[in-house]
Design a protein that fits this description.
Length: 281
């Protein structure tokens, strides 16, 4: 029996190489697309994560807003206003030795809540001690505002100096350990988010469904905190040569506003803001 020694023809070899080359090209295209998709998705995830982290911090601060009210001082004042007891006729008045006056002056922290359309400053209990013996209270001043800055991460880490030099709006968080009379100034400023396109705030009036754009509690008798704050935060990032916007919105309730009720005969300070910034009916 004669065995055939015939091998592959030139056409068969060319067809095999063509098929193999086509498969390799398709595989390389798929790998390239997958790599680009991974970079795109990773950039989007990082942008959304930074946005959510910033909003989470804002929510925690607002939810734990602290409105100090010293009830002991009010009890002392009420005891002073009480009518003295009238002695019964016929009974001798027992002399009482005078008691040395005790100092009752005590200073209360000025916890204020000052809010605008894109700025907010107040006192919060969302405070962490970095040092065990650090001299500070359980509450701090905190504020959020927008300020122009350079885009630190706008080039995606590719070292594009022209992209880095472009300015953008950044969200800053200001904190101060010492509570002073002006809750809008002082402290340390920390950048939280860059490329911010929107940071808007609205405030819910106590006992009503009216939202106002400004809220100021500057006087002790009108030291009223809102029931909730609507926060809208948006950023804009470049993706595949196009600008893409991300936005998030929350209605953040204040856990314990601790608002002082208006005395009898006075209207409760709620509603829109007056000339001096105090909520009025």
């Amino acid at each position: 029996m004669i065995q055939s020694k015939r091998g592959f023809t030139l056409i068969e070899i060319i067809l095999s190489m063509t098929i193999l080359s086509s498969m390799m090209i398709l595989v390389s295209i798929s790998i390239s697309r997958a790599s680009k998709s991974k970079i795109k998705i990773q950039a989007e995830v990082e942008s959304v994560s930074a946005l959510r982290d910033a909003m989470r911090m804002i929510r925690s601060d607002i939810n734990q807003a602290y409105n100090h009210y010293d009830y002991e001082i009010e009890i002392i004042e009420q005891s002073k206003r009480k009518t003295p007891t009238v002695p019964v006729p016929g009974q001798p008045i027992v002399p009482v030795a005078p008691v040395a006056p005790t100092p009752t002056q005590r200073k209360s922290p000025a916890t204020r809540f000052v809010g605008g359309e894109n700025t907010i400053d107040f006192v919060t209990m969302n405070n962490g001690r970095m040092t065990a013996n650090d001299v500070q209270a359980d509450f701090i001043e905190v504020g959020y505002f927008l300020k122009s800055c350079k885009s630190f991460l706008g080039d995606g880490g590719r070292g594009d100096a022209a992209k880095k030099s472009q300015g953008s709006q950044c969200l800053y968080r200001r904190t101060q350990k010492i509570i002073d009379l002006d809750v809008t100034k002082g402290g340390i400023e920390t950048m939280m988010l860059d490329d911010v396109t929107e940071f808007s705030l609205k405030y819910l009036v106590e006992g009503k469904l009216d939202w106002v754009k400004e809220w100021k509690s500057e006087k002790a008798r009108y030291n009223i905190f809102p029931d909730a704050v609507e926060v809208t935060l948006g950023i804009e990032k470049e993706s595949e040569g196009k600008q893409k916007k991300y936005s998030i919105q929350y209605v953040v309730p204040i856990h314990f506003p601790n608002n002082i009720k208006a005395p009898a005969g006075q209207a409760q300070a709620t509603g829109t803001t007056s000339v001096d910034g105090l909520p009025t009916k």
